[in-house]
Design a protein that fits this description.
Length: 346
């Protein structure tokens, strides 16, 4: 029979049980999560998503172009408002019908992306200013839609009862409005109210109406998402504890619910912005949004549709730019969603 001294020799260190790691768990333990906030973990997951990182760089590039458009135009030496086929421009670059004489829409070392048919503007500066205009409108509309949607969604989800019913039915009513057709009918009414028949509608009024109508008809998706999350969250233990402690409804919403609503708000916001860009461009294409000489993506598509048979290259640059921007922003939205919710399957 083995004695205790033989079982545990003097001077030997006590044995310890090591945790057994499952196969494939190397490098994925809980050590990387210790001492890190949810925001840091989200950023760590996002950096591992190559598609998301590349998309973020592309979106940042477009934003940088929009911000620096005046500087780029100054360094390039041209303006999107200069008509090169006029008496003060270079009429020798155009034929009798107003189309560029040089092939490929007049692309040259002087005009990098060519010249606009008929009006004769430089396409490169026209494009960077169009990006600036479209992104400015899209950011303003997105901020308004997020603000309205969060306000009504939280009010409906947290309050419940009759308030939830009223806001829910109002949301359903607004979703029934055909936004594009409503805007087509709404613009002439605004013009008649604020502008004399003999005067042209100022650009600031068109921009204000465009932002207002797109925001008024675009908040419903955000409101429904936030309402669903808030409805489930109001039954959670930390909200019930805040109610028992005597906290006011405003404090509960501000301190307990809104921080937990950041994820759906941010994810939905990243999907809303490219949708607004395409919607605003579509309205300008139909002739009820912005009008010349304001640089705008939709106006470039409208002009390109008129001259596509003669100068097909004029459609290429604004078209490829919008496709890249929309795809990159949608991929960025997917990556942000996956970073916040690692259990979501792509």
């Amino acid at each position: 029979m083995t004695s205790p001294s033989e079982a545990a020799p003097t001077g030997s260190e006590p044995t310890t049980l090591e945790p057994v790691k499952a196969e494939g768990d190397e490098g994925r333990g809980t050590a990387e999560h210790i001492g890190k906030s949810p925001g840091q973990l989200m950023w760590q997951r996002f950096k591992r998503d190559r598609a998301g990182v590349v998309s973020a760089y592309i979106v940042g590039f477009f934003v940088l172009i929009a911000i620096c458009a005046p500087l780029i135009s100054k360094l390039y030496g041209k303006s999107p408002y200069t008509l090169y086929n006029s008496a003060t421009g270079k009429p020798e670059l155009f034929d009798a019908l107003g189309y560029p004489v040089k092939p490929n829409g007049g692309i040259s070392g002087e005009f990098w992306f060519g010249l606009e048919p008929i009006l004769g503007r430089d396409v490169f500066t026209l494009l960077i200013y169009s990006i600036r205009t479209s992104l400015a409108i899209a950011v303003a509309v997105t901020i308004l839609t997020v603000g309205i949607g969060v306000l009504l969604g939280v009010a409906a989800g947290f309050t419940g009862g009759r308030t939830d019913t009223l806001i829910g039915r109002f949301t359903d009513l607004m979703l029934a409005f055909p936004s594009q057709l409503f805007f087509v009918a709404f613009m002439p009414v605004i013009t008649t109210i604020f502008v004399a028949p003999e005067d042209a509608t100022p650009t600031w009024l068109r921009v204000a109406v465009l932002i207002g109508v797109l925001a008024a008809l675009g908040w419903m998706r955000m409101a429904r998402i936030v309402r669903g999350v808030a409805l489930a969250m109001r039954e959670r233990e930390f909200v019930e504890a805040a109610k028992v402690s005597g906290a006011s409804n405003w404090r509960i919403i501000r301190k307990e619910m809104l921080p937990n609503l950041v994820t759906p708000i941010l994810v939905q916001g990243t999907f809303e912005l490219p949708l607004v860009v395409t919607s605003a461009a579509g309205l300008s294409f139909l002739g009820v949004g912005l009008v010349n000489p304001t640089p705008d993506w939709g106006l470039m598509f409208s002009r390109a549709a008129d001259v596509s048979e003669t100068v097909p290259t004029f459609m290429f640059f604004p078209g490829i730019a919008m496709v890249i921007f929309v795809v990159a922003f949608n991929l960025l939205g997917d990556s942000v969603r996956d970073a916040f919710d690692p259990k979501a399957a792509r």
